[in-house]
Specification:
A: about 110 residues, mainly beta, five-stranded mixed β-sheet, B: seven-stranded mixed β-sheet, four-stranded antiparallel β-sheet, about 0% helix
Chain lengths: ~110, ~110
């Protein structure tokens, strides 16, 4: 079972910031938070990951709360191409870890 | 250049047949995976291999047999196909255990 909880769907206007929440209240100290997205008919695509600190890359920003029980993925200027299912995953960094995808959040970017 | 490539993209076959899906990655990664995405869009891990060694084998029927001839390839052979095997199968790879997964674009298997 997935260790994360996400809203099933969200809408965001094109050009605005999309903020996708994720709860992971049972996260362990050695578990990282990863975000992937799956655009229709494609394989999942890695977005970003973090352990404690906030992270930013060319695609998005990841904000992790101080207690690490939740996080938010921020797409700063959403475009129509960002319409996808977004998955929040927690995983331990060892080779036996089963990377489990939950149901994700279906993000609709509205023109 | 495609980093993780799967063939075929579509596979339609009849119940009882045996089929294979091939996966190759040109990223030099040590670990490869097979995931199954069913009609409800749940993405579930099936297998993972690290340097040709089987690491994870989820509760998958033994009709499914992964084969890793070298660390750049992880093929999936399925015997005696059943209707319930219809799904999209994704291959993925990663460099180290902490590094992100790189997925192929999937093979849509339809069993009639």
């Amino acid at each position: 079972d997935a260790k994360t909880t996400q809203p099933p769907s969200m809408d965001c206007a094109e050009g605005r910031a999309a903020n996708l929440p994720c709860n992971h209240s049972t996260i362990s100290g050695n578990e990282y938070v990863y975000w992937y997205r799956q655009i229709h008919s494609q394989g999942p695509q890695y977005i970003i990951h973090g352990l404690k600190n906030n992270e930013t890359n060319e695609m998005a920003s990841l904000i992790i709360t101080e207690d690490r029980k939740s996080s938010t993925l921020i797409l700063p200027h959403a475009t129509l191409r960002d319409t996808a299912v977004y998955y929040c995953i927690v995983r331990v960094a060892n080779r036996d870890d089963k990377i489990i995808f939950g149901k994700g959040t279906r993000l609709h970017i509205l023109p | 250049d495609t980093a993780v490539s799967q063939t075929p993209k579509y596979l339609v076959t009849q119940m009882g047949n045996d089929k294979s899906i091939k996966c190759e990655q040109n990223l030099g990664h040590d670990t490869m995976y097979w995931y199954k995405q069913d009609s409800k869009k749940f993405l579930k891990i099936m297998f993972s291999y690290n340097n040709k060694e089987l690491i994870i084998n989820e509760t998958v029927p033994n009709r499914f047999s992964p084969k890793s001839p070298d660390k750049a390839h992880l093929n999936l052979h399925i015997n005696s196909l059943e209707l319930g095997d219809s799904a999209v199968y994704f291959c993925a790879s990663s460099q180290e255990t902490r590094s992100p997964l790189h997925f192929g674009n999937g093979t849509r298997l339809t069993v009639t």
